[in-house]
Design brief:
The complex is a heterotrimer. Chain A is mainly α. Chain A has six helices and no strands. Chain A is globular, with a radius of gyration of 20 Å. Chain B is mostly helical. Classes of the chains: A mainly alpha, B mainly alpha, C mainly alpha.
Amino acid sequence: MSIPVILFFLCALVAVAGAVLLILAREPIHSALALVLVMSTLAILYLLLGAPFIAAVQVIVYAGAVMVLFVFVIMLLNAGSEERTNISRLAKPIGLPLGFVLLLAFAYFLWRSPVGGAIANGTGSSNDAADTVKLSEMLFRQYLFPFEATSILILIAILGALVLARKES
Amino acid sequence: MLLLNHLWIILALPLAGAAINGLLGKLWPKSAVNSVAIGSVVLSFLAVAETVREFCNLAPSQIPFIGNYFTWMIAGEATPHPFRVDFALQVDQLTVVMLLVVTFVGMLIHIYSTGYMAHEGGYYRFFSYLNLFMFFMLTLVMAANLVVMFVGWEGVGLCSYLLIGFWFLKKSATDAGKKAFIVTRIGDFGFTIGILLVFATFGTVAFGEIFPLASQQSETVLTTICLLLFAGAVGKSAQLPLYVWLPDAMEGPTPVSALIHAATMVTAGVYMVARMSPLFSRAPVAMFVVAIVGAVTAFYSATIGLVQTDIKKVLAYSTVSQLGYMFLACGVGAYASGIFHLMTHAFFKGLLFLAAGSVIHAMGGEQDMMKMGGLRKKIPVTYWTMLIGTLAIAGIPGFAGFFSKDDILEAAEAGRYHHVVLFVLGLVGAGLTSFYMFRLVFLTFFGQPRYDEHKVHVHESPKNMTIPLMILAFLSIFGGWFAAPRLVGRMDYFEKFLAPVFASSPGGDVAPAAAEAGATPAMDLVHALTGWPVIVGILGLLVAWWFYIKNPEVPKRLAKNIHALYLLLLNKYYVDEIYAALIVRPLLWISTNVLWQVVDEGLIDGTVNGTATVARESGSQARKLQSGNTRSYAAWVIVGAVAFTALLFGILGVKR
Amino acid sequence: MSAVPISYYLVLSAILFGLGVVAVVFKRNIITIFMSIELMLNAVNLAFVAFARAHNQLDGLVFVFFVIVVAAAEAAVGLAIVIMLAQNRESLNVERVNLLKL
């Protein structure tokens, strides 16, 4: 039992707990905070996997910006607690078991995938900085077109959000 | 060889006449319709005469002469025995006899009809149907294979239906037409199966190809084929038990009764049996069935004819009876005698019907003999011709019927396949025939008038009706004299003419017993003139004279004394009622309750409506998928994802 | 010197994904559903990074980068729609969004 493994299990446990909290929480704000918890632990796991850049992006963009947006919206709309209606009778008996089936199926197949046995390197392989440099090079060379396309996508999203949120005048 | 190479002309002429009259006749005056109708038949007769002349010049190896015009249908060309039906016509001695009879008697009746139907509506329609009938009948007798013969067979049945129900506004007429068609259909069903069995056995339906192979088949197969084909003959030629339509067919105009139901159509069955003689001769069981059916029918319907009061009904039952004699002849192997009787019967029965029509015309439409009487002096031509016909049918020596009937009864008594029962039935039937025919004559023409002379103006018929009567009377006397030389120990010409046709049957044609060795011609003559048939014929005449001229009250007393028997005969043994109860009503019940309600409404409508219902209901259920409920949509997305994953990894075997 | 087998990460990813699915199906608040979708995306990201490490290639990381960016854009637009819905319908219950119902 080495340190990475213990760390992994710890983070995994916290992540799962956060996800369960997400489901079980009564108030949406609690769910949002649970999600932030999950994202943070995932960032640690990225670090364990030797992807510091991604971990940073996760914390800054995902947990920092997106979740903040969520929280703002929740506060804006004064989202109260969940109602308890049961219009779709089909959902509970089918959805729950199916969700677990899906979960188990994925787990099983991923376990058995040929890649599964590969060992992850420990914390930070040879050179994190060098990796990040290589990553940015890839981003701006091979994946230039998707990069530009994504920036346009963001532009469109901003415009869309603006248009949608405008009041009719 | 002009006409022999173009035999179809004989058929085409009446067909053209039927078409022209049918399509255009409504607009034309009666004279135009007449000329087209009679002209086509006369031309057809002339064509037949020419054909016969050419035929007589043929060498024996060219007979039967077959003209193959086109292949009508062919199936299974690649197989060793394709089902091939050519439109082929053939001429041999038997065909010649039939052609002459059909066209000549047909011609006379066409001429007669111009007088009889002069005051009727639908004039052009009558002649169109009559010509159409000629076409089909000629197809039947000239056919070179079973299928073309069946075309003619069915066609004459159709024309019979159309003509019986000619006065279609009269319910009894249309009922009679339907009855005729349906009853003969029953026989035709057997005939069809017979044709199929012939094809299955011989691989072909053409006569020229079947007959040489006949000796190689097993007797059982041949017997079955013959019995099936005979079933068709039983229907078409009105034998027991399918005779019931013929008396009802008297609803049609009298010329129709004369042509179709006496001279030609009903003889189609006899012709068919004679044509298929190579098969029948090799199936003794079938032959016996034919003979016994013929004999019993001859006797049975003669008994019914004894007490009928409608003049046409008496003649109808007489026709059934005489047809029985023809089948009796064929059944004992005397095919030529049967055809001979067919010919003489066409003459004298045609004559009798036409004369009866003349009487009815004279009486202004009255058909009940009990309301006639003493017409002898008033319509002399009709009287004399009818008397000649009656003498012929009774078998009085010197007239045509004597020769043919004598032939048949001799064959039944002493021919190769003789049987005493057949002879006795035939003999008694002959006696009864003589009796009821003379009864008819005496009731109609003798005695005191039993009608109101002020209401009914009896007048002789016009020339276009009396001349055919006279021609047929002439033939009723002399038409049988072909066979006369046999009586003096020499050859029967008619039989000699037909011999090649029946030569291929084992034992050939059964000729009536040849002269005894050592007998002189004079002895033969005396022997023939004092034979049993003559005796019963004269006996019938005498008894009828006793009953209806000497002591008119005797019939009434007799009817009272044996009232039950009298009623039984008068009501035709209640056969129609029995059929109605046993067959017609159950069939109607099944049709209504089973076939209509269960099968048609339940199954078929149910299936069709059910498909629509299933579609509608399943659509209605499927509609619930689109609930508008986002969460159930999400749930279905998950279901789809799981299924797809399972598909990918499990069934399609994506590598783990 | 032992390290964590990749399959552990993958199983974790699977578990998180499954939980996200369950949440999507069962929660009634639109915003909560949205957040569960984000959870699913995160689980997928984890799988990508794990695979990238397993194959020793950086392409997986690039993909993760893009996923995060697109998720952000999607969140922006999606929340704008949610706001509009909430204003129109006075409720955040997803079952109230049922104008498509027959």
